[in-house]
Amino acid sequence: MTYRLLALDIDGTLLKSNHRLAKETKEAIEYAQSKDVYVTLATGRAFPSAKKIAKALKLDDAYLITHDGAYIASELEDPIFERRLDSDRVYQIVDILENYHCHVRLLHEKYAIGNKVRQRNYLIARMNIGVGDPLFYPVNYVDSASHHLIDQPLTVPKIRAHFWNDNEKRDAMEEVQEAVRHINMTSSAEGSLDITDASASKARGLQVLGKKLGIQLSEMVAVGCYENDMEMLTQSGLGIAMGNAPKEVKAIADWVTRSNNQNGVGYAVREVFRKQLHPAVYK
Hints:
The chain is of the alpha/beta class and 283 residues long. The protein has helices at residues 10-14, 23-34, 47-56, 87-97, 122-128, 145-151, 166-179, 202-213, 230-235, 247-252, 264-273; strands spanning 5-8, 38-41, 64-66, 71-73, 79-82, 102-107, 112-115, 139-142, 158-163, 183-186, 192-197, 220-224, 238-241, 255-256.
């Protein structure tokens, strides 16, 4: 099989635990591009944050699958696909989540709004829900996101909450699922709850991008490490889980590479593409 597209998750996959890009990872991506492979990022991060990583990898013109598939673009103002949670659903979801002990963020494509957490884990929350350099993606913290939405209704591609208690997370998920229709709930890190429109996912993003480029899912390689990557791993021609992925993600993958701290992306990319000799032609 000649693979023509490589889709890479960012956190826990491309980035090491210290949030840095390894030199070997950059070199492996350049190696894949030398084989005429289209390289994209498929991430739960907001577009500006993903774009910053893409520039570091010299993927300046690539279409990026961001907000867990709800926003796909190569430039911020010109998306080729977007699925937004309308203002009514945004308010419903936030109003429910604020009854639980969690940190909520409304992830617009240009900025984020987050609720303040008045306890010792607040700084930890800000770190764990990190969405990129504030110069590229500003975050506005408010006392109550639901009160903010009453005065300033907002539509967003994604809502993310971080919980410190699994039971609270489970109860919140059940309440949101029962009250709000046509949504997709997944997780991109321990304690996270990520909510998008039901028609958005990384797998759907790959379908949209593949149609634009004339590339079939069977011609794609996807690499990821968490629950929100599982659908794209199973639908791609080759789904690769990171060595640091949870066991349920490893179980559905075609192959498990090394961990993100052991240059897993670099190792996988070279193993997959080293025998690929024939260039692909894109529309």
